[in-house]
Amino acid sequence: MENRPIILLIDDDAAIRRLCSRMLQRLGFDLVEAETGAKGLALATEHNESLSAILLDMNLPDGPGQNVARKISELPEPPPVIFFTGTATTEQTVDENGQAHYFLKKPFTKASLEDVLRKVEVPIPTAST
Amino acid sequence: MPVALLLTLDPGLERELDELWPGDVLLTLDSEEAVRRAVETLEDDGVLLVDTSCFPPPEVPGFLPICISGDPAAGLPFLERPLRRQELLSWISFLEHGPARKASGGPSPILPSPFAEFQRDTVHDLNNQLTTLQGNLILLQEENNDPALEDMAVAAQHAIRLLQWMEWLGAGEFPAAHFHVPEFLTQLLPLFDRLKNRHTEFTLQSTSPEIFLTLDPQKFLSLLLVLTHAVPGPPRNCSFALDQTGNSVRLNCSWTGQTSLPELPGSVERWTQALRATLDQGPGSWTLMFS
Is the reported ipTM for this assembly greater than 0.90? Predict the structure, then answer.
């Protein structure tokens, strides 16, 4: 059985994690979850080379998501990070190290999630029509 | 006006501050290192605006920090979004000339209003609930044609729109904005039926998809609400027509049923002048012209 690509989700809201799990499974991904930045960073380190992308909430109980993103960027094979936000629009910005940052505004749908995954050039196993 | 450095990863915040900032120099930087390098090249002291949803406030000699948006840092000034020009200027003036500069221990400890923080957290949590609701409804609709799901999905979409309006109206003061008028009106129309006890159907026709205005959206919204509320009846139908000729934007409202001229409060003339618009009235219609 072919291995499905893996996405790491870091969000403290359990219902959001379950929703993303359903959406990503329908898109053909497997999901690894964490409810804090510290646990998310540990999972990112453990699964580093096999992660297609990371979905990261900007407001985590143990600190801003951007702190986690910075540490993730120091991994040997950092995957693209997509920030969940309630304020920014779905856009991209590039920092001084050339690393792109993408935002996905809540509330989001399966279609907008798929759209931003395409923007970070993650192949969608079961692309919607 | 002092030099301002903005530390953020959010392009939306950069745009928002760009519209408000009255001074000549506003540098947007995306790391603490970049801030320190920029400070080394600047001759004057200034203000460091820190997006604390992205970064903890760094200590930078000569630059007094103001926290924006995320978690407030104990002892530092804090601004919530959407930003208010007067509040921003007040903090800058306070930091430049107030006790913060004179005290040896740094800025006075000032905490954000607990009510404002509660509102912010409530909106954030409500946004998460609506995300869960709408997202799961759409997934269910992929497998099930039950019309009840369609009703629920429409209600969820409407709730999201209402939340956006709550966030906007709750701010109390809107920044001047360059906004897309057809989209603005399309989002507003479903709320207008409250002005007419839900008896009226509102529609919009726009001759061009790309009509923009640069003006105070709060005054524009206030004017629209008053003019729409003044429509006699309530009529069964009320139609908005939006078109642009050259630099002039024309918004017409016409209705069926009673055609008597609406009675308008005195504030309409003030708002119209403040928006640099003209208002024409006729039987069964009113028209705003912006140039």
Answer: no
